[in-house]
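ingest -> validate -> predict -> emit
validate: passed (alphabet ok, no gaps, 340 aa)
predict: started
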Amino acid sequence: MPVPDGVTERKGPGGSTYLRYVAVKAGGAVVSLLAVLVTGFFLFRLIPGDPVKTMTGGRPVSAQQLAEYRREFGLDLPLWEQFTDYCGKALSGDLGTSYQFRTPVIDKITEALPNTLLLTGTAFVLYTALGLVLGTRAAWRRGRFADRFHTGLALTLYSVPSFWLGLLLIIVFAVGAGPVPGLFPTGGMESGGEHGLAYAVDVAHHLVLPVITLVAVEYGQTLLVARSALLEEMDSDYLTTARAKGLRDDLVRRRHAVPNALLPTVTLLFVNLGRTVAGVILVETVFSWPGLGGLFYQALSVPDLPLVQGLFLFFASAVIVMNTLADLVYPLLDPRVGRT
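emit:
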């Protein structure tokens, strides 16, 4: 969990110390993005295979035609020239043209992004709410059966590979197993031919299993962090004072303990949001969901270098940006951070 450091004095959101802190964090984010840009270019060129030959689909192609393809996509240039060309275009917002789709990479990302946001956004809201509610209740009743059960279940599900859980859900609830009939589609985002409200219901029907997969795998971390944060507050003096004033135990928990315990959890939520967007590749692939994850897998199988590089940069940027926002928000939520 990112905890801001390096601040010796905090003068408020508009203070010079906080502005220097913002500048340092923003500079670190820029350096990280540049490192991702360089890493992405060289990393995916280690993938075996010739993308030009793969695009021909095994059809007999002359050496001259292959040379023309390589010249068209700039693959005949020296590696250093390809690199400088890629960096220059990427910094100006041009991620290149997809080999297999023959369209700008940014257009393919824009086209698939809403589908990924629908899936990850729905899962994020659900696993965040579930983790916070169950985590705070488990901490407040520590040592009891509910606490042990939810903590054990969270640890178990958090360690389960998402693709394995997704396949298991497909076998049981989509294909059908034993007395359980197939209740949900095996994949895709829609059945086709639906409009209006019927279309929304159809998409929601396809959304159930992938969302359950993401929620089951991700809610455990939120639960464990919320539980740990609240346990640290349990013996605080202000809670003893609140109880001494005659406040009901439920009010002490909701009005005093939980708001203070939420500070590290809020930071975690920013990190999780970026990580969920970047980590949805396996789930989208298993459920054939037409989002960025499925597009990345499809591009990687060619390999479609411009598309793979563009998606890698997008995923890494989501994580870096959310981590940076978490760093910037934390001092605003907890002024004590700026005094250490």
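Residues 1-14 have pLDDT under 50 and may be disordered.
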